[in-house]
């Protein structure tokens, strides 16, 4: 994936993300209006998930970020809380994993920025990508 | 949590919200105020997460309108996370 073709705000967001949290973060592929952004080091709450507690996943980040909100994640393997309860938002649509299936993407969680859990704050700047990562970690923790 | 006595004998709590340092002269700190001092203009829709260390793992979360007791363990490092969400 040639990230030079991405809109400048998304490129800046990726730079911020790499510098502040995940040097290996990258856009794997763009499908439609969304980039599948590889987040190699997402924290899973050790009180709620078995090891490993740092796992990689893909976040679907709009190429128009931060004007448009993120939507959904793709994981390698099913989210597996120790409580074994079902995870809301898991999609049976294999097409959402297809762009990263060859890389191990197997499960899609159709999580939206706003909805039943409340309205997410407006995203304003490329640096808000860091909030997206912590938002994903919180969603996984509270899933 | 960091607590130290000033020359006047008052307790001071030094906390970090991300890289932002805040000094509090009381142990009960409103979440909204902590967030505003860290640069969040409108705390609504955000969550304040207490971490178990610098860049650590969240151990407790607070919503706007709540009070944080800075005298408790694991109340020194925080981060602000967007709240909200849904399913489609």
CATH class of chain B: Alpha Beta
Q: Which whole number gives the mean pLDDT of chain B?
A: 92
Most extensive interface, chain pair and sizes? A-B, 27 and 19 residues
| Termini Cα gap of chain A | 31 Å
Number of domains of chain A: 1
User: What portion of residues of chain A is helical?
Assistant: 10-25%
Low-confidence stretches of chain A: none
Helical percentage of chain B: under 10%
CATH architecture tag of chain B: Roll
* Number of helices, where a helix is a run of at least 4 consecutive DSSP H or I residues of chain B: 1
Number of domains as seen in the coordinates of chain B: 1
Please provide a brief summary of the model:
The complex is a heterodimer of chains A (143) and B (88). Chain A is α+β, with helices and mostly antiparallel strands and 143 residues long.
What do you see in this structure?
Chain A is of the alpha+beta class and 143 residues long. Chain A has one domain. Chain A has 2 helices and 6 strands; from the N terminus they run αββββββα. Chain A has helices spanning 8-20, 129-142, and strands spanning 26-31, 34-43, 54-62, 71-75, 90-91, 107-112. Chain A has a 6-stranded antiparallel β-sheet. In chain A, β1 and β2 (34-43) form a beta hairpin. The longest helix of chain A has 14 residues, at 129-142. Chain A starts with 7 loop residues before the first helix and ends with a helix. By secondary structure, chain B is mainly beta. Chain B has one domain: Ubiquitin-like (UB roll), CATH 3.10.20. Chain B starts with a strand and ends with a strand. The mean pLDDT of chain B is 92. The chains are: A alpha+beta (143), B mainly beta (88). At the A-B interface, β6 and α2 of A face β5, β8 and β9 of B. β6 of chain A pairs antiparallel with β9 of chain B.
